[in-house]
Amino acid sequence: MQDRLVTGQIFNIQKYSVHDGPGIRTILFFKGCPLRCRWCSNPESQSFQAELAFNATRCLTKEKCGFCEDVCPQGAISFPVSGGLPEIARERCDLAACHAACSQRCHADALKIFGRRITVEEALKEIEKDAVFYQRSSGGLTVSGGEPCAQPEFLMAILREAEKRYLNTAMETCAYAPYEVLREAASHLDTLIIDVKHLDPSLHKANTGVDNAPILSNIKRISSEFKDLPILIRTPIIPGFNDSEKTVADICDFIESLAGRHISYEMLAYHRLGTQKYTQLGRPYPMGDVSLNQMLME
Residue 78's CB: how many other CB atoms inside 10 A? Predict the structure, then answer.
């Protein structure tokens, strides 16, 4: 199959980003991730399947609308007899079978689908609309997620096709993937951005769901094999997890040991901007009410 016809699951295409690689960039967000970071600000990125989100603040209720209940073939949406907001039985929801009929009939935009299948050609057609900004700022395309390496066929097709079109490419990754996938991606990239969240394997697993040994091994190997590839290593500073000088110092020591010639480091402050998405997806926010001491970032 030609690269431009390969399909993948995404949840967003974000224009005019200036924080995810050099210059002005468009971010293609892949859906699906092997990690379950407790602080994840994009919970809609975690599942590989399309998901239904409900924004209660926009709902007109059955008294003024009620179309979503009428069109749901699974009976997954119902309104209480006493009135008020709809109740969603998510275990019954089958978006593939109903083609998201509820979202299509929701005039208030209270129901939204996170996730859609798209071809490489469709994605790049949207991305190339801002080519003039990339040329003026040395920007380009950033693939992010979720985890891009978790959809390797789509990822490689995107990167190869972008390379043919002379698009500058960057990738944000957790590096929890087979090394062969990360290696092939790196051969097409202009910039690689990787998270290092903690060096302690037990703490890493308790807070992300996976061991960090493959991640650290991949970073060592990729920096050694691609010595001239610009690599930005980021650490999200999370309260109660890695918000200590020793933890950050240990990460810095790890970075100093790497073989790459163009490695930089950045700390990112914990924020709570994604909490409303958890509510819309019917999930509790794992971090509760904790907040970061901003003095740590000064």
Answer: 14
As a whole number of angstroms, the longest Cα–Cα distance in the chain is 66
Name the token pair of 122.
């469709």
Residue 228 has pLDDT above 90, yes or no: yes
Number of neighbours of residue 211 by Cβ within 10 angstroms: 13
d(CA 298, CA 288): 24
Q: Does the pLDDT of residue 295 top 80, yes or no? A: no
Peptide bond before 8: cis, by omega within 30 degrees of 0? no
Contact indicator for 237, 39 with CB cutoff of 8 Å:
no
Q: Facing residues of 169 across strands?
A: 141
Mean pLDDT of the chain: 95
User: Rounded mean pLDDT of 149-166?
Assistant: 98
pLDDT tens, residue by residue, 24-58: 999 999 999 999 999 999 999 999 999 999 999 99
CA gap 174, 193 in Å, rounded: 9
Contact status, residue 170 vs residue 21, Cβ threshold 8 Å: yes
Q: Please answer whether residues 229 and 173 qualify as being in contact, where contact means their C-beta atoms are separated by less than 8 angstroms.
A: no
Is 293 a residue whose pLDDT tops 90? no
Amino acid letter for position 258: L
Pairing of strands 191-195, 169-173: parallel
Q: Would you give the DSSP letter of residue 243?
A: -
The mean pLDDT value for 107-133 works out to: 96
116 phi and psi angles, rounded to 5 deg: -155, 150
Q: Helix H segments across the chain?
A: 61-64, 67-71, 95-98, 101-105, 120-127, 131-137, 152-164, 179-186, 201-208, 213-225, 245-256, 275-280
